[in-house]
Amino acid sequence: MRNLLLLTFALLFVPSPQTREISSVVIISYKWSKSRQVMKKIEPQYTAPAPGMIPQNKKWERDARVNNPPGARDPSLDSTDGRSAAIEKNVQESLAPQPKPVDAFKYEVKVQNATAQAVDILFWEYQFIERANPQNVTRRQFLCAMNIKAGKEKEIQAFSLAGPSEVVNVDTLAQDSANPFEEKVLINRVEYADGSIWQRKDWKFGEIREGYRRATSTPWSKEMCRGL
Question: Quick check: 123 and 189 in contact, CB under 8 A?
Answer without folding.
Answer: yes
